[in-house]
Fold:
Amino acid sequence: MERSFLVAAIAIAMLLGAPHGARAQDVIKVGLVHSMTGGLAAVGKQALAGVRLYMEQHGDVVAGKRIEIIVRDDATVADMGKRLAQELIVNDKVNILGVGITPTAMAIAPLATEAKIPEVVMVSGTSAVTERSPYIVRTSFTLGQQSLAIADWAAKNGSKRTVIVQSDWAPGAEATAVFTDAYKRGGGEILDTIKVPLANPDFAPFLQRAKDANPDTLFVFVPAGQAATFAKQFVERGFDKSGIRLIGPGDITDDNDLPGMSDAMIGVVTAGLYSASHDSQMNKAYVEAIKKANNGLRANFISLGGYDGMHLIYAALKKTGGKTDGDVLMAAMKGRAWESPRGPISIDPETRDIIQNIYIRKVEKIGGELYNTEIATLEGVRDPSKAAKK
Structure:
């Protein structure tokens, strides 16, 4: 009798456990490792705003399975990001990773390879990131895409002598390298390259050094979130009255920072992948939605990286019928093309990088607020660093 009771108990336990197991298989977990605190906290919060907006608009069920996001804060520290990603993979059994800044994206890459889990890069703009793992795909941008475009524009529009001011980390180095090469090919001269600490930068002494070199152009890369501080010190050092032209990738006139900048920024020209004033119905709806959902946040390229990152995840899951095998998902992501609030974009099937329009923009005052107005479009731009290697 005791043996019969034990067998019956085990059978009942298995029956009770079956629905729970089935429910577990019906949940797809997406682990998001972003900087919610630390020096680049604004960046992580903006990317997450894009992720959440996409899910609000499209629901949390794809191919009959519920999407669950698990957010972890790397505190703008790569080692922290790597540890958190390992916990997400081992303990939380996530199926997909969505990551932010360059150091964290690179640190997580070996884990994605080992676990065969797609790592969707939503923020980092460093070209080499996608080369660190065959399971990395990017929905943000590369700094090379923007730096090449602005270098060509500057060389064709009277710029001859440039000083570069860059944040001293991998994205800054890449922006500088691509700009320098293209600018010199166009006949320009680089007078000096000045590196600024990433953490708690005081731009004033570096700006004075740049001014002393007597350039006609200043090319600047600082990460989004530091642009407002840079702009303030740019004006304080009298650059706005010096006749020196300010140019750079889109970070220096980030859409979310522009409202806090002075009118001295009017006329600044940058190359970027997006502007809040981009003229499309999809973008107008996106700008209003992100503003409403986030207490007045202005849409920017960072939030869009998160928004399009979730679109790619949803689209891949629809194509696989909800299957989460890493290789199957990566195959579904490669070559994917869609219309974004920024314009048409696609995933290069060879490099897993984003292909997108790059816009030359000029800061103008519209309706009492500063905006990046698109004045020229370069269509279907690939990452130039990988194109050069090819």
